[in-house]
Amino acid sequence: xxxxxxxxxxIEERERHVKTxxxxxxxxxxxxxxxxxxxxxxxxxxxxxxxxDTRTEYQMDICKNCFLDKVLPSLQKLGKVNExxxxxxxxxxxxxxxxxx
Length: 101
Ligand SMILES: [Zn+2]
What we know:
about 100 residues, alpha+beta
């Protein structure tokens, strides 16, 4: 006869994305219905060697309102910002380029 005994099982902890908070207004970024906004600013500056990466990374998550009201106008003051539309399954570049102030 084979006897069985229960042993406590080790539970592994895993990190899982649960929410994103805007780094400007500190409000949770929520997409409602089919709305799906992804606004991230990411820069890696420095040197990358075969053995290691010495770059400094700068990263921000931004909500739609802060992007449209604060970030986009600032970027437009620095230079032209190209606007693309994702109509259908392919990104099509719109001929319209948002002007420089
Ligand atoms: Zn915000």
